[in-house]
Amino acid sequence: MAVLVTRPHPDDEATAAALRSRGFEVLQAPMLRFEPVAFQDDLDARYGAVVVTSANALRGIELKGHRLLELPLFAVGEHTAAAARHAGFTHVMPASGGAAGLRDLVLARVKAKELKKVSTLLYLAGADLARDLAAELGAGGLRVVTHTTYRMVPVASLPREVCDAFAASRIEAVLHYSRRSARAFLDAARVGGVEISALSIPQCCISAAVAAVLREAGATQVMVAATPDENALFEALERALRA
Question: What is the pTM of this model?
Answer without folding.
Answer: 0.83
